[in-house]
Design brief:
Layout: E1 2-4, E2 10-11, E3 18-20, E4 23-25, H1 50-58, H2 62-68, H3 73-79, H4 82-85, E5 97-102, E6 108-113, E7 118-123, E8 133-137, E9 140-145, E10 151-156, E11 161-166, E12 176-184, E13 189-199, E14 206-215, E15 220-221, E16 225-230, E17 232-241, E18 244-251, E19 261-267, E20 275-277, E21 283-284, E22 289-297, E23 300-308, E24 316-325, E25 328-334, H5 337-342, E26 351-355, E27 358-362, E28 369-373, E29 378-381, E30 396-401
Parallel strand pairs: 16-20
Antiparallel strand pairs: 1-11, 2-7, 3-4, 5-6, 5-30, 6-7, 8-9, 9-10, 10-11, 12-13, 13-14, 14-15, 14-16, 17-18, 18-19, 19-21, 22-23, 23-24, 24-25, 26-27, 27-28, 28-29
Length: about 400
């Protein structure tokens, strides 16, 4: 496992910053001279105790903290000290931030600070492709490339520190794979889950399923849990919440059920064989969906789905948000029509990510990002992003995460 620790890369369009490389820095502090070309009496801030410096820095917005770390050696050491980063929960916003990127092979994109409602040019420590599986949790983000490099990166986007591990070997040739990620901050560990589905019959009714679990304490992949599904198959959407793995499944007999999507669960503590999935174990979707996205918002399992038309279930007419209560879905909100129209042409499949109190929704065909605040029960647009479409078929995507200064 490789571990890298790099300085964060920030920039914006403010006129009070001096650009240097890919970062943005505050102007150097200078002594002011009087008309007689003599230095005025000044007092150095170095005489202040470290705890005063920490209090001053802790009251800055997160982006300003990293800029301030370039002012002097003392502030750099404070910002990057373990003592300071462990206090970040006391001064960082609970609101999640959103990173937007394109289908290009570059690591650059735009980062949205939901507290200041401002976009920053931002660069990840490695290129991210829109086909990668991405799962955030507690300030860390897991990236899985299951096609080319066969690697997983666990990264803190703010500090750009990350770890890399190899994907577990597959028992067959998976058609679908899904990534789930959960951080246990009190115990300084994280869990990764990969669900793979392999076709077991020519009629697409039978599927073999494997669940791979990574334990960060032992730094190893546990033996895969195997099972089968009849009439249902996993896709590319899973979620870990309270050590329960939630798997969004799709019915392979669409003419026999009204809702083609469903949900199954697996207790990660049990480590029992899956066996064969039975019809009664599937939690039906709240309505006919064009697509579904699972996320943990306000410590609850939330489903964001495209609502299909009654006459053509595969064609989207709106977007809804539901919370799982036991085995039932409770509707929280439906996107007002004026916001649906604001996307222009809303695709049947879209990007959505959530955490804290916020849910982000973005069309793959554009840069407009809509936010739903679960606490206030309000819909609103993000500030307009400066990223532009370079060619007609360019794909945009993104993910949200909680800004944190520590890795674990």
């Amino acid at each position: 496992m490789d571990s890298f620790s790099l300085g964060a890369s920030w920039s914006d369009d403010e006129s009070d910053t001096n650009q240097k490389g890919t970062g943005a820095f505050l102007p150097n502090l200078e002594l002011i001279e009087n008309d007689n070309n003599q230095e005025e009496n000044s007092v150095s801030i170095d005489i202040l105790p470290d705890d005063i410096h920490e209090r001053v820095l802790a009251r800055l917005p997160l982006s300003a903290i990293f800029k301030a770390s370039c002012v002097c050696k003392k502030w750099y050491e404070i910002v990057h000290s373990k003592k300071f980063t462990l206090k970040d929960a006391n001064f960082l916003s609970e609101k999640t931030w959103y990173f937007m990127f394109t289908s290009s092979a570059e690591p650059v994109g735009y980062l949205y600070d939901s507290g200041l409602r401002k976009w920053y040019n931002f660069e990840l420590p490695f290129p991210v492709h829109h086909t990668w599986k991405i799962a955030p949790s507690c300030g860390l983000v897991s990236f899985m490339d299951d096609e080319t490099t066969k690697k997983i990166h666990i990264c803190n986007p703010i500090t750009r520190e990350y770890e890399t591990l190899k994907n577990p070997p597959s028992p067959g040739f998976p058609v679908y794979s899904a990534l789930a990620f959960s951080v246990d901050q009190p115990n300084s560990k994280y869990t990764i889950s990969i669900v793979r589905a392999m076709q077991a019959s020519e009629d697409f009714l039978s599927w073999l399923v494997s669940i791979h679990i990574y334990n960060s304490n032992e730094k190893t992949w546990l033996p895969p849990v195997m099972g089968g599904m009849e009439g249902w198959r996993p896709g590319d959407v899973t979620l870990i919440c309270d050590n329960i793995l939630y798997i969004l499944v799709f019915c392979t007999r669409p003419n026999e059920v009204q809702n083609c999507h469903g949900l199954v669960t697996y207790n990660l503590d049990a480590s029992n064989p899956i066996g064969v999935l039975r019809e009664e174990s599937v939690i039906s979707a709240p309505c006919a969906l064009t697509c579904g996205r699972l996320m943990k918002v306000q410590r609850q399992v939330v489903l964001v789905g495209g609502i299909g038309r009654a006459d053509r279930p595969g064609v989207i007419k709106g977007i809804g948000i539901w919370v799982l209560c036991g085995r039932e879905w409770k509707e929280i909100s439906r996107m007002p029509q004026k916001f649906v129209q604001g996307f222009g042409e809303l695709d049947d499949v879209f990007a959505s990510s959530g955490g804290g109190d916020l849910i982000y929704i973005q069309s793959y065909g554009g840069t407009a990002v809509l936010v739903y605040d679960m606490d206030r029960r309000q819909w609103f647009w993000c500030q307009k992003c400066q990223m532009h479409k370079k060619f007609p078929l360019e794909i945009f995507s993104g993910f949200c995460f909680e800004p944190r200064l520590q890795f674990l």
